[in-house]
Every structure is written in C-alpha cells, then in structure tokens.
Specification:
alpha/beta; Rossmann fold; two-stranded antiparallel sheet; 16 helices; 15 strands
Length: 463
C-alpha cells in the first residue's frame, strides 16, 4: 500500500484537509448542515477559520444499538452517534475535473444505517471509472420524521452542498446522479417530486423502492405525534425506547416520508403521473425474492404485520384472487406489492427514459433460503464481494458472483456518467416501453418482455 498524504480543498465553509492514498482522495465527516433544534429543519453548516481535519467519519444518526439491527445496518457498537449527525464523505479520483458525481442515500427502513458503512466505500467507482462518490448521514426514526419530513430536508441540504462545493473536489455539479436502496430509494422517489430538490440532480437510480400508493399523510403523522407525545427534553434513550414501542404497534411504516403539502406536496407516483416529477433518466428495479430477507431475519412477524392491513384494504374477494395467482405464497406476494409494483409503476409513468431490472441472482447462503433477497444486489453494485457482510449474503460464492458484480458495477457507472446503462458488460438493455422490457440480472443476464406478467396484472388498478 502506498503511503498516504494530505490534500487541501476550499469549501463555502472553510478549508478541509483530507487524505490521498492509492490513487484516491477522501474527505470524511464534512458538515453539510447542522441540527440547531430537535424536530426542526436543518440550518446551514457553520464556517471555520484555518484548516479543518477531514480524515475521520462524523457521528452517525441516532439509532438502536440492538445487535440484530446493527448486523443489518453495518453500524457497529463503537461508532459514535449524535443528534447533530449531518455530515458527508467525498471520495474522488487522484486527479480530474468536471467528473460525474454519484450521491448515495443509504437504506435501513429510515431507522438505521449510515453513509460510513464499509460497503459504501466507492473507491472502485473512483479508480475504475473516474466517478466522484458522496455518501452522507441524515436523521432517522422519530428524529427524522416526528412533526415533519426532517430527513428529506436533510437530504436536500446535502444535495445543495454538492451543488455548491463539489467542483472543488473535481466533480461536476451539472452531472449528479442520486442513487439509493430501500429507504434510500424511497427517498430518491420523493426527491424526484419535491420542489426544493428540483435541478439538484440529473439522473436517478432506485434500488428496491418501497414507496407506493398508500403514502402516509399529514394526518397520519399528526396521529403518530399525539401517540408518541415525547417531551422536548426527552433523552436519547427515551426517544429510542418510544421509537421501538411505536414500531411494535405500527411497524416500520411509522417512520417514512409523508405528504405534508409542503416538503412533499403529493405522493411520488401521483405526482409523476401528474407530470410534476423531475424529467431525468431512471435506472430502477427490484430483487426477485425481496421479502425472503425479512422472513429469514424477522420470522413470521414480518409477514403478519402486512397481512391483516392488506386484507382489510383490498377486501376478501380481491384478496382471494391475488392469493390464487401467487398459489397462496405470501412471501412473493408481499415482495411484489412492496417493491416490484412501485418500480414498475414509476417506470411506466416517467417521461424520461427508464431502465427496469429484476435482480435474480440466487444466493446459496442459508441453504438457499435467501434466494435473491432484499439488499442482495448491494455487494454486486458496489463490487464489494470480499467484505464480511457481503460474504454472509452471497454465501461465500465469490467466484460465482464476481462476473455479475463486475458487469453491474460497470453498468451503474455507465449510467451515472451518461444516463444510459448500455455498453458496460450486460446484454443490450432497451428503455422500458409498451413491451415492458426488463433486464434480469443473473449468472447469465438477459432481457425479457413483461416477466411474470400474471403477477403484475393482478395488481392493476391499485397502483
């Protein structure tokens, strides 16, 4: 490994001293905004005199220390947490100017995760593709959504920082792609239709987006605020305990973007259908066995939390028809409802080119129980198969996974650069149209028209 050296840049807040090593320059823990008051919008980051050290990550958002959650989030016990967690990390090639920028929004059901998770180290994007990578933290759980869409405001603040500062790091503020998975993809869907985010990005990637027709409303958020009734001086432990209790009663959907008529005027699908979304190219998709992850790690409670509300909403007759198509299999049914249908509907409605995929690579982990589960595509997209967390997901099949990981990583980079995923190792990938062409990502990838059509059609009229 080559010796490291320091590297200095000038931002709107002051000078930052980062680290250069092995052809990559990194700056960590950079404040992009600040939390001046709990449950309030972020304020601009302060300024500083002289040089600020940017060699270490900033504190992550407040979240549960439960080891089961930490295993999924990648946030270890020793990582410091803070209410004022609004920092970002920049990873850039050793040299270059006006380079394309990938801004990553982490997932974690809006209750866990961080931008400093090792999986999201984008050095291969930098060294292999000359892409500048930005990751960041945003407020989670009750601190992110109680009384307002604070988490979404944080994300817009991060994108504004990128617009105003990324040129100093070699990035092009006019070539920004937002990429997110799970809660991160739901965030991207919201950003597509938020007036405050207009013009801050130029392409978008949504991986396993779970935002659908039943977007929570301001009334839902107000009901949760009354139910929780936290005092303004509540301790962090009290907030986390209240959050856990709320999740037990209402599920993780209690922590999600909601239509407030201001930050998020309409639900994403409704707004895109009305022509109010950002007209940017999309790469969007889902994993074939999304719900397997929740069944394996959470057990029957994961599906039970969905079954009763879904049956009540759809009615006995329609529910029976849907179950018949799925041969009574709730796992695939819930996965399609939560992840496939939002992706498909957004691809149908988006006026700019959309490229739809389904991730089909079946993992041998846990005797095949995970299949192509939720989050399975992440080690492939980041080309980080060697990490311990990645090995758990792929069941140690590094050799079997590497060809697809290389092709996906290169394809995502191509889209970040041009808005077109073609020419980077996968078969020719047509934009989504009336033929419903979908890239099936697998050991042998291929394009198929309207795969599993009968399962898509059964949801028509609901989305």
């Amino acid at each position: 490994m080559a010796a490291s050296s320091s590297v200095l840049v000038e931002t709107t807040s002051g000078k930052l001293r980062g680290v250069a090593r092995d052809g990559v320059r990194t700056w960590r823990g950079v404040p992009y905004a600040s939390v001046a008051a709990r449950f309030e919008a972020p304020v601009p980051a302060g300024t500083w005199m002289g040089e600020r050290d940017a060699s270490t990550f900033g504190p992550v958002a407040i979240q549960s220390r439960d080891p089961r959650i930490a295993m999924m989030s990648g946030v270890g016990e020793k990582m410091p947490m803070s209410e004022d967690c609004l920092s970002l990390n920049v990873l850039a090639p050793e040299a270059g100017d006006k380079l394309p920028v990938l801004v990553w929004i982490h997932g974690g059901a809006f209750v866990m995760g961080s931008g400093s998770t090792p999986l999201y180290d984008g050095r291969t994007f930098a060294t292999r593709h000359d892409v500048v990578v930005v990751t960041f933290n945003y407020r989670l759980g009750l601190l992110g959504f109680l009384g307002g869409n604070h988490a979404l405001r944080d994300q817009v603040a991060a994108l504004r920082w990128v617009r105003d500062n990324i040129a100093a790091f070699g990035g092009d503020p006019d070539s920004v792609t937002v990429v997110g998975e799970s809660a991160g993809a739901s965030s991207v869907a919201a950003l597509l239709v938020m007036p405050s985010a207009r013009g801050l990005f130029h392409r978008a990637v949504l991986q396993s987006c779970a935002i659908g027709v039943a977007v929570p409303t301001r009334e839902d958020a107000e009901a949760i605020a009354k139910e929780v009734s936290l005092p303004g001086d509540a301790t962090i432990d009290q907030i986390i305990a209240a959050q856990a209790a709320l999740a037990m009663r209402r599920g993780l959907s209690a922590f999600a973007p909601f239509v407030d008529g201001d930050v998020l005027p309409k639900g994403p699908i409704e707004a895109i259908q009305a022509g109010e979304g950002a007209r940017v190219p999309l790469l969007i998709g889902w994993n074939r066995d999304e719900w397997a992850l929740f069944d394996v790690f959470m057990g029957p409670t994961a599906s039970a939390a969905v079954k009763a509300p879904l049956q009540a909403r759809l009615g006995e007759e329609r529910m029976a028809k849907i179950l018949a198509v799925y041969d009574g299999g709730w796992r695939d049914l819930i996965g399609d409802l939560a992840f496939r249908m939002p992706a498909t509907r957004i691809a149908e409605l988006q006026p700019a080119p959309s490229y739809l995929y389904r991730f089909d690579w079946t993992s041998p982990a846990m005797n095949g129980a995970l299949g192509a589960a939720h989050a399975m595509e992440l080690p492939f997209m980041w080309n980080k198969l060697d990490l311990p967390a990645s090995q758990i997901l792929i069941g140690g099949d590094t050799a079997g996974a590497q060809p697809l990981a290389t092709a996906m990583h290169d394809t995502w980079a191509a889209f970040v650069k041009t808005g077109d995923p073609n020419g980077a190792g996968l078969p020719a990938w047509p934009a989504y149209d009336v033929q419903r062409q979908t890239m099936l990502l697998d050991r042998t990838s291929k394009v198929e028209a309207d795969p599993a059509r009968e399962k898509r059609v059964v949801w028509e009229g609901l989305f």
